[in-house]
What we know:
Layout: H1 2-38, E1 45-49, H2 56-72, E2 76-80, H3 87-94, E3 102-107, H4 109-116, H5 124-127, E4 128-143, H6 152-161, E5 167-170, H7 176-188, E6 193-196, H8 200-209, E7 214-218, H9 219-227, E8 232-236, E9 262-270, H10 275-290, H11 292-300, E10 304-305, H12 310-331
Parallel strand pairs: 1-2, 1-3, 5-6, 5-7
Antiparallel strand pairs: 3-9, 4-7, 4-8, 4-9, 4-10
Helix pairs in contact: 2-10, 4-12
Amino acid sequence: MKTFMREEKLMDKHLIRTTTATLVAISILCASAIAGAATFPERPVRIVVASAPGGGTDIIARLLAHKLLDIWKITAIVDNRSGGGGQIATDIVAKATPDGYTLLLQGNGISYTPYLYKKLSFDVKRDIVAVTMVGSQPFILAVHPSVPAKSVAELVQLAKAKPGELRFSSGGIGGSSHLGTELFRFRAGVNMLHVPYKGTGPGVTAMLNGEVHLGIAGVGTILPHAKSGKLRALAVTGAQRSPAAPELPTIAENGLPGYAYDVWYGLFAPANTPRDTLNRINAAANEALRDPETIKRYAAVGVDVMGGSVEESNRYLQSEMANWEKVIREAGIQAN
Length: 336
């Protein structure tokens, strides 16, 4: 009996020591996480961008990174990883350590990629969290000067007269420019040939060289070429005219009623990133987006700033995913 009681006391002491050690370890980890969030960032932050250098998303990322440097006094490095309709960039961030030092700046493709591709190496709802919405803009529908169409209505007529002959470029299969033009093709009931490129920049270059007949891209990307006469801008894709190009009608009012396509951009992080860290990044990003100079520079390329809390941004993302799931199913759009 005494032996049993002695063993029981030894077991109790061992349990107490183990429990105490566990609680101490948890306390240390929690304190470390809190301290880490409080001092974030302590080293350069990497912003992975789903765009080649010079593309619309790249421009938006670099403007934000520049202002974050002013706020953090630490560099935000833009890492261009184009391809796969944003899959490459999203996959990198989805698999990154969730510590806030690897972020994703992606367009609205992140909301519809899950419905375009049958197989993905990540799950947006499971692996990605929105930090804040950055901005939105319409695209411009433009044609090479050799194309005789002077309006959207004339372009639709031309495409119907020459089914499968008109070629349109995009920044890659499943990208924003691809989906926007596929939506145009679907609404207009025309057959055109898609020619994907590795990024918006190369896709626009193909239009300039006459390799393709038409395409859509950001206001800041297309407008300089339209003003120089190297491209003919027909209309903006959004529901409203763009303040950056008020002379351009919308596609809906210029020959294709019911069409509207605005592109938004967001800042994202790996899921399970500590909430305090997300809040610190969100606060810095929103401070950058409220800056008058940032607003002015975004407006110059046709982007309206958005911003918002972590909660608001994730609700917006989920709403957009639900909308695009329905559109893609009804239009029968597929990337593979």
